[in-house]
Prior knowledge:
By secondary structure, this protein is α+β, with helices and mostly antiparallel strands. The protein folds into two domains: about 1-75; about 100-190, hypothetical protein PF0899 fold (2-Layer Sandwich). About 75% of the residues lie in helices and about 10% in strands. It contains five helices and four strands, in the order ααβααβββα. A four-stranded mixed beta sheet has the order 2-1-3-4. Helix 1 runs antiparallel to helix 5 (about 180-210) and helix 2 crosses helix 4. The radius of gyration is 46 Å and the shape is rod-shaped.
Amino acid sequence: MKSNLEQLESAIRQQAENLANTHLEAAQQKAEQIFADSAKRLQKREQREREIAEVTANQEFRRRVQASEIKMQAELDQLRWALVQSVLADLQVQLKELRQENDTYISLLKQYLKNAAQLFDEKELVVEVNADDHLLLAPLWDSFINDAVPDKICKLLASNKNFSGGLLVRNEVDRIRVDNTFEGLIERLENEIYQIITTQLFASVTSIRNI
Length: 211
């Protein structure tokens, strides 16, 4: 009887041990699965954070590049404007000096008048100059016209407009005007000078970017 009881207890213990081992193995497998899933989630989170960090870094880099380009563009605009003003200031100085050389200046005015007169069908024209040039040209006006536009009849007037030199040519009814004053010349040249300077600056910037 005792032997049977011992056998039963032994069987129960064995069954309990087997059951415990089964649960332990299952628990270990579950733990391993949990660790594996956790590792995968952690890896995905790390990958996602790296991607977010990379996107953020790229956005910050692009933002800084754009800010740098905007700043450079503003500096280029300032430089262009300064260069244009510098060139125009030099031109104004040269034109002022030119007015002091009577023979050269008179030859220039003849050319201005000749070029302007070609644009008119009318024979009679009005030539406006400033007060100083009126004093210069009035004594020699007939010969001036014969040299420049012998086929035209031109009336010399002291203009009430404020310009430093050159001349303004118009018809009698004042419907057509050709502005060959120094100020008109500078105004027409300003855009051309700006384009030249812009082209040169952009060429320099492109070279720098390609270094």
